[in-house]
Design goal:
The protein is of the alpha/beta class. 41% of the residues lie in helices and 14% in strands. Bound molecules: pyridoxal-5'-phosphate. The site of pyridoxal-5'-phosphate has 14 residues, from helix 6.
Length: 505
């Protein structure tokens, strides 16, 4: 049994170690010193992390909110009387003003001229993407081109495209960096018939590998006669999207990923030039200027109202402006630089982890330096005999240490399949099991097809991360040295929990 004296001495030793670690880190990444405001915020705005002993490493899943965002929003709610914005009474008009003010603020934030773009409030990025899928005029002769690296909510648009007879083509990724194969992309773009309704969809940043795909693809797609859907959900929490420089037709985002609060609101930015070719498949409350039962017709509202079905999440919308202002107080470039430093340090240290026999302990999927990548690092652990260590057990051990990381396929099956070397045959071997196929079941199937994994561990850092977080994770990771078998028999993970992984982002 350790005495209080011993445990205090141990803690002091660990703190000294961490101080030494920080000194070495700051020497390698000196620009961390320009981000000290975020260390202050960690104490003032995000103190609940340390108060709860939590190491939060899932910013790609969801950002964290600050104290001041909550206070400001609650204060607004406490002091205002606000009605449903679909009316013309004073409380409704007050709410409409707040909603429109937030809409304009959002356009300004992304440097989108109101002459060029409209901003639609949605429930999340997936809601924004679905609006595009439903309304884009896919037809025979047209093409839906998308990258292997995409969230399922972008993959899902292929079902709208196929149903309406458009051709669907995936752009492959190169290994090991998981970047787009530009030669294949050029060929695909050239094969697209101009003058048709063609849409190219890609993520500005991968939620699987952290790769930042080049935004000059937008101009290249335009030059080849394709409209562009940019999924910016994983990009905008740590990078600036400037819509005066790049002009995709559609941009999808989720605000909770940027600043944590509120959940349940996203946006679709639509370039006005493309509006007239969109066709909404239905009308709803709030989307029409006029609708008649006996007249058997309706006239959709112009612009954003035509895309906002029913009552928007109006009381929470003003918190979006507060959240954007919160990011502006520190500056998105400062956030980007801070997470670049932590990501670089994590990559350097993870890559240097070795078993006693010299074998590497981890494989990282995607770029292993900080060039053109964001703060998402996806990996698997391997034993000294080069056998994969089960990521479900690793997650369970991380949970026990208060470390929140993500495991599974992160709703990005295409990037995962390429990263993990899964072939079409491997996938078909699973798919033949029918609709009950779950990730654990699939894992069993592919175990018989070689030392492959379906799924990985994702760690992602963000605005409230500090050195202690990444240091604690590295200590945890180093604990797998010389581990060959993790006792999966003790895992409490069950088949149902995989549904949570599958639904997650
Ligand atoms: C790149 C990317 N696109 C889309 C989404 C979907 O976001 P939401 O679940 O908020 O709709 C996510 C969520 O993680 C994402 O990372």
């Amino acid at each position: 049994m350790t005495t209080t004296f011993e445990s205090t001495a141990q803690q002091r030793y660990e703190l000294d170690q961490m101080d030494d670690g920080y000194t070495a880190f700051a020497a390698s990444y000196p620009s961390i010193n320009q981000t000290r405001l975020l260390d202050e915020w960690r104490q003032t705005q995000y103190s609940r992390l340390d108060a709860n002993g939590q190491v939060y490493l899932d910013y790609t899943g969801g950002g964290l909110y600050s104290e001041s965002q909550l206070v400001e929003h609650m204060q607004m709610l406490r002091t205002s009387v606000l009605g449903n914005p679909h009316s013309a009474n004073p409380t409704s008009l007050a709410m409409t003003d707040l909603v429109e003010d937030t809409r304009n603020y959002m356009l300004q934030y992304f440097n989108a001229s109101p002459d060029e773009y409209i901003a639609v409030f949605t429930a999340n990025a997936s809601g924004a993407l679905k609006l595009v899928g439903e309304a884009y005029p896919f037809d025979p002769g047209g093409h839906y081109v998308l990258t292997f690296d995409n969230h399922n909510s972008v993959n899902g648009i292929r079902e709208f495209a196929r149903t309406r007879g458009a051709q669907v083509t995936y752009v492959p990724l190169t290994k090991p960096e998981l970047r787009l194969d530009r030669t294949k992309l050029d060929d695909i773009f050239k094969s697209v018939a101009t003058g048709q309704n063609n849409l190219f969809a890609f993520p500005a940043q991968s939620n699987f590998s952290g790769v930042k795909h080049p935004l000059d693809l937008i101009d290249q797609a335009h030059d080849n006669g394709l409209d562009v859907l940019l999924d910016a959900a994983a990009f905008v929490p740590t990078s600036h999207l400037d819509l005066s420089v790049v002009k995709p037709e559609f941009v999808a985002i989720s605000f909770y990923k940027m600043f944590g609060y509120p959940t349940g609101i996203g946006a679709l930015l639509i370039r006005k030039a493309v509006l007239q070719k969109l066709k909404r498949p239905w009308f709803a409350g709030g989307t029409v200027n006029f609708a008649s039962v006996q007249g058997n017709g309706y006239y959709l509202s112009p612009n954003e109202a035509a895309f906002e079905d029913g009552t928007i999440n109006y009381l929470n919308i003003p918190a979006i402006k507060t959240g954007l202002q919160h990011l502006e107080k520190v500056g998105i470039d400062t956030i980007g630089e801070r997470v670049r430093c932590f990501t670089g340090w994590l990559l350097d240290n993870l890559l240097s982890l070795r078993h006693s026999n010299g074998k590497p302990m981890v494989r990282i999927y995607g770029p292993t330096d900080t060039k053109m990548r964001g703060a998402t690092v996806t990996l698997n652990f391997y034993g000294p005999d080069e056998r994969l260590l089960d990521y479900r057990r690793i997650e369970e051990l991380a949970n026990a240490e208060g470390i929140s990381l993500r495991t599974g396929c992160f709703c990005n099956p295409g990037a995962g399949e390429i990263a993990e070397g899964l072939t079409a045959e491997d996938m078909m071997a699973g798919m033949i099991h029918g609709p009950d196929l779950s990730l654990p079941h699939f894992l069993q199937v592919i175990q018989h097809r070689g030392n492959k994994s379906a799924g990985a561990i994702r760690i992602s850092v963000g605005l409230a991360t500090n050195f202690a977080d990444v240091y604690r994770f590295m200590n945890f990771a180093a604990g797998f040295r010389d581990q060959n078998n993790l006792n999966i028999g003790e895992v409490t993970f069950d088949i149902q929990s995989c549904r949570v992984i599958r639904d997650g982002s």
